[in-house]
Amino acid sequence: MKQIYIYGASGHGLVVADIARACGYDEIIFVDDWNNKFQSFEQILLNTNIPMAIGIGSNKTRKKLFEKAKLSGFELVTLEHPGSIVSPSAVIGEGSVVMPLVVVNAKAQIGNGVILNSGCVIEHECIIEDFVHVSPAAALAGNVIVGELTHIGIGSNVIQGISIGSNCIVGAGSVIVKNIKNNKKAYGNPCKEIGENE
Questions:
Q1: What is the mean pLDDT of residues 56-77?
Q2: Domain ranges of the chain
Q3: Which residue of the set 12, 124, 133, 151 is catalytic?
Q4: 79-190 in CATH: which number?
Q5: Of 36, 113, 142, 198, which has the highest C-beta tally within 10 A?
Q6: CATH number of 3-71
């Protein structure tokens, strides 16, 4: 029996659980500190032999829980749905989740705790730093860099060679043709910085 903890029992956690099942985990054990239908993190601290995936969509919360789990001795597993296409030369970091129909092409580097959501495309030699969320159907052309904790909105497109800073929010459907600085909110076609992401 192959067991896994999913830390977070919300909608995103349910999707992560489905991916874990597709990856061969037989028993899914949800852990949630805010829903008393499930065990809390403190209640599982004696069972660090069971690996864990973080089922939280918020980048900052996911980072916090990832670090707490690592500090407590849990193994954070990387889940790649069998319906995704990941180049053998790509590197996927610890605790990241690759959802169905995702494409990760040659020499892409994906950091720790990243969400590559359904149907997104990460082209050759992209660098996606830790705790980024690339939303469904977003497409990043070759050699794009995305900084830590940034969220790329659903259906966005990023042309080749663009750098998007850390802790940014890129709105849904944006077309990114210029670099975006750190800590910015940006949106539109063409995408423009519209304010600070506090």
A1: 98
A2: 3-71, 79-190
A3: 124
A4: 2.160.10.10
A5: 113
A6: 3.40.50.20
pLDDT of 198 higher than 90: no
pLDDT reported for residue 1: 83
81 catalytic? Reply is no
Output the 3-class SS for 8-51.
CCCHHHHHHHHHHHHCCCCEEEEECCCCCCCECHHHHCCCCCCC
